[in-house]
Amino acid sequence: MNLSSASRTFQLLSRLLDPRSSTEPFVPGAGDKRALPLRPSAQPFPRAVPEEAGIASRHIRKFLEELSDPALHMQTVLILRRGQALCEAAFGSQTLLAPAYTFSACKSVVSLAVGLLVDSGTLAVTDRIADIFDDIPGLRRRMKDLTVEDLLTMRAGLLFTEAEALTETDWVRRFLSAAQKSEPGFFYNSLNTYLLSAIVCRRTGGSLTDFLQERLFAPMGITDVLWEKCPMGVEKGGWGLYIRPEDAAKLGQLVLDGGVWQGERLLSREYLDAALAPHAIPPASTGDFNYGYQIWVGRRENTFLFNGMLGQNVLGFRDSGVLVVTNAGEDTDFQESRYFEIVSRYFGGAFPDRLSPDPGGAARLAETVRTLSAYSRQPERVDQAGVAEKAKLFLNRSFATEDPRAASVGLLPMVLQALHNDYTQGVESVAVSVRDGLPELIYREKGAVYRLPVGLGAPRISALDFQGDAYQVAALGRFTHDEEDRPVFYIRLDFVETPCVRILKLVLENGRMTLKQTETPGVPYVYRKLSQAAQSALYKPLLLVAAGGTEEDFLRYKTLQLLSPQIAFEPVK
User: Fold this and answer.
1) What contacts 537, CB < 8 A, 6 or more positions away?
2) pLDDT of residue 550
3) Which residues are within 8 A (CB) of 60 and not within 5 positions of it... i.e. 6 or more apart?
4) 3-class secondary-structure state, position 12
5) In the beta sheet, which residues pair with residue 503?
6) Which residues have C-beta within 8 Å of that of residue 421, sequence separation ≥ 6?
7) Is the distance from CB of 422 to CB of 469 less than 8 angstroms?
8) Which of 119, 166, 203, 310 is deepest in the core (most CB within 10 A)?
9) Rounded to the nearest 5 degrees, what angle is found at the Cα of 138, between the Cα atoms of 133 and 139?
10) Considering only CA atoms, which of 223, 228, 111, 251 is closest in space to residue 165?
C-alpha cells in the first residue's frame, strides 16, 4: 500500500464507520448489475434417478439433511455423476433459477479463458507481464521476470489488494506499480486474477465475457451471465460473476471430462493437466487443497475445486465422476467450513455403475427436497384468522425517524453496498400497507423508495433497483411478539442472486417503533476481517483511528453499529 492509497483507505473506513453520516465513495458505483431472469438453464443436464448412476437416493437424502444445519447457511446444491443431474435442492427462500454471485469461484473461469488463449497460441504461461503491458513506463526494469504463470499460481507477490481497489480507478497501473513482497511464494490476491482478465482483453481485443461467450458459453448453453467490471471497463476477474448453478456445473463438468463437452473438445487436456497440478502450497489454515492455475487441487483426494468465500463451490471427484455444486452464505474465506468434511465423507469414495431401483428411497429424497424449500409451504394472507389480529397493529401505518444514526442505514445489505461502492443516503421512513392480501413494506431512503410485497407462509420474490443495480429479493415475513411481548413484524430478505440476507424487525412499544436490522454475512465475519487487517503494523493504526477509538473492542462496537443498527421511529399522524 502506498501513502495515497493508505490515506484514501483510511478516509473510506472513517466514512463507513461513522453512523451519523452517509458514506461517500471515492469511486462512484457503476450501476451495472442489470436485472437477471429467474429461469432454468438453457441447455440442462440430463436427469437421472440416483440409483441409475450408482448412488443411493437414501445416501443423498442423508447428505441433504446434514447440509440443512443452519450453521452452514446452505442455499443451493446440485449433485451430478458422469454428466447426469441426480439431485438439485434449494434451501429456504433460495432458488436454483437465479444466476448466483461468485466471489473467488470465478477465478477458475478466468483460468479457463487463459487456457483457451494458450491453446490458440495467442498466449503462453511463460509470457512476461512487462512485454504484455509494454506501454507502462519502467515495468521492464521493475518486474522483468514476472510471468503469466506467476499470476495463475498466486505467486506474483504484489501488494495492491481488493480493499485498495475500492478507492482507485486504474487498477492495472496501480497493481503493477505496487510494492512486491520480499519473500517468494504463495500470496493470495484477487488482483492477480483481475490482471489475467485484463490480459485476455488485450490479447483478444474485446472483453473477457465476449471471448468466453464465443468459445465456451454459447457452445455449452450458458446464458444470463453478468460479470461486474472495474472503473476502466475490464471484468473484475477475481470476483463479480453471476452464473446459474447448473451453468457453473457445466464448467466443472468440462474440467472433469478433460476439456470435452458433449463429444466436442473445447479446451486442451494439456492445459487442464497443468492447471490441475499443484503449483503452490497455501497455508493449512485455508483448508485441505493446494493451488494450481486459479483452481484448487485436493491434497489427499483426487479432486479439484472452484472456491469462493462464503461458500460457492464446484467440487469435482475425478475418480468417481461425481460433481457437487453448492452456494452458501457461511462466514468462511476458503475451505474452513465443515461442509468439506461432510461432502468428502459422502462422495469421496467409490461408487458402482448402477444400483437396484429403490422407489421408496427416491420418493423420500423427493419429499426431502420439496420440504427444504420455503416455496413448498402454504401461502397466507393478512385477513386470515390467526394473522389478521397480529397484523392490524402494523398495517396502514407509517413511521418517520429523525435519529441521527439513520444516515448510514439502508435496505441493501452493507456488504453489497461496499462491494459496489454504492452507499445509501439513509432511511427516512418505514410504512406497511396492504396489496393483494399481502403486507407491503414501503422503505423510504433519501432519494429512493422501495416497495416490497412480503410473503406470509411462503416467500414472495420481487425485483428492486438500488441506484441502477437491480436485485431479485425474496421476502418472507411473520407477525409475532418478542421476549418482552412487544408486537414484532419480522421480515427476512434473501437477495437470491447473492449470499446476502437482510433481517428487519419492526418492534412496537408505546406507540413508537424501533427498526432493528441485521445481515448475513454480518458482525462476526466483518469484524474478523477487520481484526485480521488490524494485525499489520500499517493497517492497525488506520483501523483504530477510523473507528474512533484506541481499543480493538471499540472496533467491534463500531462494526455492530454499522451492521446491526437500531433506529427509533415516531408514528406519522
Assistant:
1) none
2) 46
3) 50, 79, 86, 87, 346, 365
4) helix
5) 492, 518
6) 25, 26, 27, 28, 29, 166
7) yes
8) 310
9) 40
10) 228
Total Cβ atoms within 10 A of residue 571: 12
* pLDDT tens per residue across span 410-431: 999 998 998 888 899 999 999 9
Q: How far apart are CA 452 and CA 462, in angstroms?
A: 7
Give burial (CB, 10 Å; 0-12/13-18/19+) of 427.
buried
Give helix then strand counts, H and E, for the chain: 20, 23
Dihedral of the alpha carbons of 377, 378, 382, 383, in degrees to the nearest 10: -160
Helix (H, G, I), strand (E, B) or coil at 404: helix
Distance CA 106, CA 297 (A): 15
- The number of angstroms, rounded, from the C-alpha of 21 to the middle of its chain's C-alpha atoms is 27
346 close to 59: Cβ distance less than 8 angstroms: yes
Residues 6+ apart with CB under 8 A from 213: 225
Asked whether 76 and 282 are in contact (CB, 8 A), the reply is no
Report the distance separating Cα 570 and Cα 401, nearest Å.
Answer: 6
Q: In what order do the strands lie in the sheet with 312-317?
A: 84-90, 74-81, 322-328, 312-317, 303-308, 296-298, 289-291
Closest CA to 402 of 23, 22, 14, 20: 20
Give the count of alpha carbons within 13 A of 505, CB side only. Answer: 17
C-alpha cell at 412: 441493501
C-alpha cell at 2: 502506498
Nine-digit cell string for 211: 471471448
Long-range contacts of 277-283 (CB under 8 A, 24+ apart): 279/149, 279/152, 279/153, 279/155, 280/153, 280/154, 280/155, 280/185, 280/186, 281/186, 282/186, 282/188, 282/334, 283/186
Beta strand pairing call for 264-265 and 289-291 = unpaired
| Unique residue bearing C-alpha cell 477510523 | 546
- At 72-128, the pLDDT tens digits run 999 999 999 999 999 999 999 999 999 999 999 999 999 999 999 999 999 999 999
Name the 3-class secondary structure at 525: helix
Residue with grid cell 465475519, as numbered in its chain: 525
What is the phi/psi pair of residue 501, to 5°? Answer: -130, 135
Q: What is the pTM of this model?
A: 0.94
Three-state DSSP at 221 gives coil
Q: Kindly calculate the radius of gyration of the chain based on its CA atoms and give it in whole angstroms.
A: 24
Residue in the block written with cell 427476512: 492
C-alpha cell at position 51: 440409483
Q: Provide mean pLDDT across the span 344-357.
A: 97
CA distances from 255 to 213, 242, 273, 317, 318 (A): 17, 19, 10, 11, 9
